[in-house]
């Protein structure tokens, strides 16, 4: 019993270290992208200003409210996969204030959710939400950072959805599902069986990822991207006032006709 307890503690510590390492890596990618674009545009300023931090807090609060309103899609994936729209504030915030802000909104959202509600998936679902959310937010906001036009925003959202679907599916199959099975105590065979009840084509981890996880991520990405494209332009004047330095634009960027 003592050895089992020690093993359980070790497994959880490893998982916590993986979570922190992933969060640090995503933050560094976002920070590097912003610094590169600043250097390219001849701009020198802090990545996080007081106004940005204030807006990150606001968008994180909106995101956690949406996160707490998650619901299952029983015809796509088992009930422990729940859909939410918390990526919408994160994506809007990332478009307005940069990739670092997007990652921080995702991170703060998950922390707030854990404080308010705790975890029902041994923290695996919370890591999944953060990492897979960032796999949409990061590529989309980095692409948009280089050229802030409506066409680029659409292309960025499409690219982000594709990356989220491919990466999120692979990350589930390679790490998250085995981790969930180990930490939550649910055998992989039982997880696969839950998928089989929904779709008879599911008979392995690979088919589970292809027929359940991938469609789930597509729905999540399309929904978040579609709503963001609808609301970002009306919100843009308010967000520009909240972040005047970062919203300086060269000719042909946001302020022109057909831009967002």
How does the SSE layout of this entry go?
Layout: H1 2-40, H2 50-67, E1 71-72, E2 82-83, H3 87-97, H4 99-117, H5 124-146, H6 150-184, H7 188-198, H8 205-242
Antiparallel strand pairs: 1-2
Unreliable stretches (pLDDT < 50, length at least 5) are 244-258
Main β-sheet description: 2 strands, antiparallel
N-end to C-end Cα span: 60 Å
What is the share of helical residues? over 70%
Strand order of the largest sheet: 1-2
Question: Which overall shape is indicated by the principal axes computed on the Cα atoms?
Answer: globular
Structural class: mainly alpha
Tally the helices: 8
Mean pLDDT: 85
Rg, rounded, reads: 19 Å
Number of strands: 2
Summarize the helix and strand pattern as letters: HHEEHHHHHH
Fraction in beta strands: under 5%
Description:
The relative contact order is 0.13. This protein has 8 helices and 2 strands, in the order ααββαααααα. Helix 1 (2-40) packs antiparallel against helix 4 (99-117) and helix 1 runs parallel beside helix 5. The longest helix has 39 residues, at 2-40. 75% of the residues lie in helices and 2% in strands. It is mostly helical and 260 residues long. A two-stranded antiparallel ribbon has the order 1-2.
